Amino acid sequence: MKKELALTGLLCIALSGCAGAKTPQAAPTVTETVTVTVTETATATVTATVTAAATPVAVAPVAAVPAAPAPPKTAVIPAAVEGMNAQALDEDLAALGFETVIYNSDTGKTVLLLRNWTVTGIDNPGAEQPLSKSVVVHVTK
Questions:
Q1: Which range among 47-51, 82-86, 110-114 shows the weakest confidence by mean pLDDT?
Q2: Are 86 and 43 members of one domain?
Q3: pLDDT tens, 42-53?
Q4: What is the pTM of this model?
Q5: Which of 78, 74, 88 shows the shortest CA–CA distance to 124?
Q6: Which residues of 5-134 form beta strands (DSSP E)?
Q7: What is the CATH number of the domain that holds 108?
Q8: In DSSP terms, which residues pair with 121 in a beta bridge?
């Protein structure tokens, strides 16, 4: 295994001089002969002959990728939300694209787990509103 790795590495090093030309020049013919001898318990000889002609390569222009359609900047606030589970409404509002939803407890308690609350109303039901504007949802336990 070590012999194969050593031979492969030396062959790659020897052949690496053929790549990397940046400016087109006359087409030279390159012939390299590499002899590698590795002695461990056996002797291996590798001979590689590489003939390369440098020819200018034309670069194709990159086609422009069509822009993705812009996401909608407004959405309609759902109207029939009374009695819904607050977690389900939160998922619906997120799917519509609303960025900020404020849950206002009718009892003054802090709303932590949405699945434990029931929706009693929503501000501006059925109105079209920018997605960046907050949506206020009223909930009770």
A1: 47-51
A2: no
A3: 555 656 565 555
A4: 0.49
A5: 78
A6: 36-39, 43-46, 74-76, 101-105, 118-122, 128-130
A7: 3.30.10
A8: 138
